[in-house]
Design goal:
CATH superfamily of the largest domain: Metal-dependent hydrolases
CATH architecture of the largest domain: Alpha-Beta Barrel
Mean pLDDT: 96
Low-confidence stretches: none
Number of domains: 2
Shape: globular
Strand order of the largest sheet: 6-7-10-11
């Protein structure tokens, strides 16, 4: 099913160059500096339970599309928070998925899934209603084999390093189990303190308690809160972390006087923080985290512009990460002014910026990354990690920021078997973009061959300090 020239430009001259560029990059190791694979998967190295649990239930790219076409999440085996009964037969879930597989035509999810089925599992049939059970049985048989366990797949995928995303209060027990097991897979944590900073979140107070317990100190003041975060960053770094990650609605940054930060924190501990308090506190903490990154060298990532859990009915019934996070318009130039003026020129600081708002690429993000030494542009994220989205990104930013102020590729996935498919798609798209520059005589072919290695491999290692 997989055409060897997929995603390349159909012009013969451009396709020839793209094919040669892709072949240069195809066998390079995979560097995965940002993602959401559960490290317990690799710590336990247990067989995957069944095809539905592997490829359907945990992947909100899949479930959100099916939900948009009227398929109830209960029928997909998604557990409800109230413990109500949901579909428990994985064969029925898989059949329902196959019945609707046509919905993914020409989407990145469809491309990834087709690549997974053939490239990872050797499935030669097209997935549809009539073939669903035969494919399920073939997958189930293969998942029982040792060569399809998580660590074996990790090695087969040629993953050089994989970074997870972990809460500030996480014990990193799974990471420690991996390291003590003797397995050579390079799995690193990433420090994500979002819940510790969201002072109006219902679970914030419990997170502060856990944070204090892990840091070995009771958090009763803003000063001890900051000290606990610094202690946890040191612990993460000792466990191999090279980066932090911050998901905010807006990248607004502003430094508060110490006394004002203390007052807001005290109100939060009493459960009295307002929406204005939360905005000011988050803005101040982004400044604090930038300061910490200057001092400890952890790369800082900001993922702004997502209004989380937009569908309140789904959120209340099924919880977070169910495919109902929706982008909002995002402004960077003014919002990041305070942070960049204080830290954007620091040689020890790296700030990777992401966006869900493509209108900002040319207007704001490319000029910012094209000037501040600390800034790198993250690749198209989430709704735009697609064939056309990747091409639009390159067209929008390259002339202003160049290639070397971008951060390389990351797969940003929870779906472990999709990792090679996502990298492969990006390498083919970048090969096409570079080939077009070659055939228009903007680049020499030798330069393009250097660039495809950098875009596919070197830039991610360099940006995230994974050397």
């Amino acid at each position: 099913m997989l055409n060897p020239n997929r995603y390349f430009d159909p012009d013969p001259a451009t396709r020839r160059v793209a094919r040669a560029l892709y072949e240069r990059a195809a066998s390079l190791p995979l560097v995965c500096p940002h993602g959401h694979v559960d490290p317990t998967l690799l710590a336990e190295d247990a067989p995957f339970p069944d095809p539905a649990a592997l490829l359907v239930v945990p992947d909100h790219y899949v479930t959100r599309m099916l939900y948009s076409q009227g398929v109830p999440l209960e029928r997909l085996g998604i557990q409800a928070l109230d413990g109500a009964a949901v579909e428990s037969d994985p064969r029925k879930v898989w059949q329902l998925f196959a019945d609707h597989f046509h919905l993914f035509r020409a989407t990145p999810t469809g491309c990834w899934l087709t690549d997974e089925l053939e490239g990872v599992f050797g499935i030669s049939q097209r997935l549809e209603s009539a073939t669903a059970m035969a494919i399920y049985d073939e997958l189930q048989e293969k998942l029982a084999r040792p060569e399809f366990r998580p660590r074996a797949l990790f090695d087969r995928f040629n993953i050089e390093v994989l970074c997870t995303t972990d809460a500030a209060s996480d014990t990193l027990e799974a990471h420690q189990r991996i390291r003590s097991s003797g397995w050579k897979g390079n799995i690193r944590p990433t420090f994500r303190p979002d819940l510790a900073v969201d002072i109006r979140h219902p679970r914030w107070r419990a997170e502060i308690t856990r944070l204090g317990e892990q840091a070995g100190q009771e958090i009763t003041q803003f000063r001890t809160f900051v000290a606990a975060l610094e202690e946890r960053r040191n612990f993460f770094k000792a466990q191999g972390a090279s980066a932090t990650d911050h998901a905010v609605i807006t990248p607004y940054t502003h430094e508060l006087p110490d006394a004002e930060a203390e007052v807001i924190f005290t109100r939060a501990l009493k459960g009295q923080a307002s929406a204005d308090d939360a905005q000011a506190f988050t803005a101040h903490m982004l400044m604090e985290f930038a300061r910490m990154s200057v001092e400890d060298g952890l790369v800082m990532q900001i993922h702004p512009g997502s209004l989380r859990n937009h569908n309140q009915r789904v959120h209340q019934r099924f919880g977070s990460d169910r495919g109902c996070d929706i982008p909002v318009a995002t402004e960077y130039t003014r919002n990041l002014h305070a942070l960049l003026n204080k830290y954007g020129n620091e040689p020890t600081f790296t700030l990777v910026l992401f966006t869900l708002d493509e209108s900002t690429y040319t207007r704001e993000l490319a000029p910012i990354a094209g000037h501040y030494p600390a800034v790198r542009l993250g690749p198209p994220w989430w709704f735009y990690d697609s064939i056309e989205g990747m091409l639009r990104f390159r067209h929008a930013v390259t002339e202003t920021t160049g290639f070397y102020n971008t951060a390389g590729f990351n797969d940003d996935t929870r779906a472990f078997p999709s990792i090679p498919a996502r990298h492969d798609l990006c390498r083919r798209v970048d090969a096409t973009f570079l080939a077009r520059l070659v055939t228009r005589h903007i680049l020499e072919e030798e330069e393009a061959h250097e660039l495809i290695v950098d875009l596919s491999y070197t830039l991610a290692k360099r940006t995230y300090r994974l050397d």
